[in-house]
Specification:
Number of strands: 0
Radius of gyration: 18 Å
CATH architecture: Alpha Horseshoe
Shape: globular
CATH superfamily: Tetratricopeptide repeat domain
Structural class: mainly alpha
Order of helices and strands: HHHHHHHH
CATH class: Mainly Alpha
Distance between the termini: 44 Å
CATH topology: Serine Threonine Protein Phosphatase 5, Tetratricopeptide repeat
Length: 197
């Protein structure tokens, strides 16, 4: 019983650390976000967010905070660890951005393409098959931006600075989308509890 209680408390603490880190990351404060993500990773290194169907592990958040802070070496280490989870498409995207920035255009292109295609497919899947799919990318803005990036990657003369900037923007917009979806879900639930008023 004691171990179950400890695990529950630790899980709650990890979720709290990640949420605090996410808020700082969304505000553009990666150095504030990083210690929260690192504490979460030290408590539960295999933690995956459970409040959004978008699969993202704690190491992806550690890597993203390092990336946004400009520490690409540490970001790469964290994202390579996150990349071991085949379902973590944002880890693929960010690892690809790091590889591209380091001059490994072939490896960067491969990771970025894989991450973006899977994210696009995931958004389509959500729209068609998930009860909360109507909340995810309803104006198809994210999918449109993903398609633009994939088109850029298909050209012989890839404009890497533009592609990297687009990938970074997509990562931020996907994080913002999680919050928009959560607000929409709460609003719908509140309307339902109040009889649609």
């Amino acid at each position: 019983m004691g171990s179950i209680l400890f695990y529950g408390c630790a899980g709650f603490q990890v979720a709290g650390e990640i949420q605090q880190g996410r808020i700082a990351l969304l505000r553009g404060e990666p150095t504030v976000a990083l210690p929260h993500f690192q504490r979460a990773a030290s408590l539960e290194p295999n933690y995956v967010l459970n409040f959004a169907p978008l699969h993202q592990g704690v190491w992806t958040y550690v890597g993203r905070a390092y990336y946004d802070a400009g520490n690409l070496g540490e970001a790469r280490k964290a994202l390579e660890r996150a990349r071991l989870d085949e379902s973590d498409d944002l880890a693929k995207l960010y690892l690809g951005l790091i590889l591209a920035r380091a001059g490994d255009r072939e490896g960067g292109s491969r990771e970025i393409q894989t991450g973006l295609r899977r994210l696009h497919d995931w958004l389509d899947y959500m729209e068609q098959y998930h009860p909360d799919g109507r909340f995810w990318d309803p104006g198809r803005y994210l999918r449109s931006e993903i398609q633009k990036s994939l088109t850029m990657l298909s050209r012989k003369d890839v404009r890497w600075p533009e592609l990297i900037s687009s990938g970074e923007m997509l990562g931020k917009k996907l994080e913002e989308e999680i919050e928009l979806v959560r607000r929409s879900q709460v609003l719908e639930q509140t309307k339902g509890e109040n009889g649609g008023d």
